[in-house]
Here is the input.
Amino acid sequence: MSIDMEIAVDDLGTLPLYPPRRRLVDLIPTFLISWIRKRYSWPKATPRETWAVSGLMLRVVYQTQRTTALIEEVPKAYFLSETDEPHEPGKTWN
Here is the structure.
């Protein structure tokens, strides 16, 4: 069972702070609503469900950006790169 839901990532920033009003459909228990959707091919999500999933996706996008920024702040590991000229035995580095 899948719910038909279209969410544009670019529009996540305009998500309202509070969810849409509950409708009668939102008050049906989950186990009944999944049975109704499966039985009657009713895969369209309610506005409240769309709002909840959009909020979750907005949080994921925000956390990803925050994590990426924190990773970029960490200093890079120091390592020795290979030189253009191979090291010759007996040659000293000054």
